[in-house]
Amino acid sequence: MKSYLLALSVAVFPAAIFAQPADPCAGLAGPALAQCRGDQQKLQQQQLEQQQQQLQQQQERQNQLAEQQRQMQQQLESMRQQNQLLQQQLEHDKSLVQSVRASTTGESKAPELKSWKSENPWFGTDFAKTQLAMRYARQLQREQPDLVGRPFLDALTAKVNDTFGASN
Within a domain: residue 31? Predict the structure, then answer.
């Protein structure tokens, strides 16, 4: 039993030593103890300040990341809106092309359109002139809905010639 108690005490004693942090001021007395305790408090204060600085830096980084994420979300939303506007414009342009074709490609109007296209070879080949003609066609349809056929096409030609000059 003595050997059992001896073995138990030998096993428990080192565990107790390692479980508790060693006191660097142990064994000191008087002014040396006071100096050691003061140094320990300064060291603990410095460690605490370092931890606070690190925490503050982490919070600043998190704030920066949150701001970057917010900006990216704003940019993404802006891009979505721009994409939506472009899609709407494309659909509008397609409907305009269809309406111009519909107003100029009727059975009785086909010869008018063919002769107009032969007189205006820029239509469909010169992007700027064609776009201007299409935009002006929209405007004319709103302002003068009764203007159709050759007079409508001649008005488009006049607008393009006024803007770009009379060279076909």
Answer: no
